[in-house]
Amino acid sequence: MRLLLAEDERSLSRAVKAILEKNNYAVDAVFDGQEAVDYLAVGSYDGVILDVMMPKLDGFSVLREIRKRGDSTPVLMLTARSEVDDKVNGLDLGANDYLTKPFHTRELLARIRAMTRAQTPQNLDNTMRVGNISLDRSTFELTGPGGDCRLAHKEYQMMEILMSSPKTIIPTETFMTKVWGYDTESDVSVIWVYISYLRKKLTAIGANVQIKAVRNAGYTLEVSE
What we know:
CATH superfamily of the largest domain: Response regulator
CATH architecture of the largest domain: 3-Layer(aba) Sandwich
Distance between the termini: 32 Å
Number of domains: 2
Structural class: alpha/beta
CATH class of the largest domain: Alpha Beta
Shape: elongated
Strand order of the largest sheet: 2-1-3-4-5
Number of strands: 12
């Protein structure tokens, strides 16, 4: 499950991001309201954790903007404010829930589960399948006839992208923006490194699918004949 975390206090952002990733969420972190709007314009998320007091655009403005353009992604407002009027304002603008700082980790996780569960059909298959392999979105387990392995977060995100569009060329830029983020300082060569990791794991589980490089274009997931 993919979340966007918009929090300008970087130490808190790092701590929350670490907690969420430990609980099997894939997280993009941004540090101002305009970044949040930009990420939501081009990315697909299962939920947003949105701080109210942020530079450039505050959380209320971000929420107003995304709801105005029809984005129904569930939003948890995160703020140091505890005034009833602020909570009412956020809820009236389309927030799904409201959490006041400081908060307990268990409550944060429970509220995220609740708001995302409300948006997810109960009969949704949480397993992706291509060829003779499957990917469990809740556990990050990649399974084939030769066994299974748990993918690291970035490996999982890349594999999910590939399995979502088999036989389709995924540009390298897509991996960079969706997995490492728009403001990443990582070199594009990191993509090749992670593709190498995934290829080794596919071989280890006896997969009949291969990740093929398309020169100057990107990568594609192909089922072997």
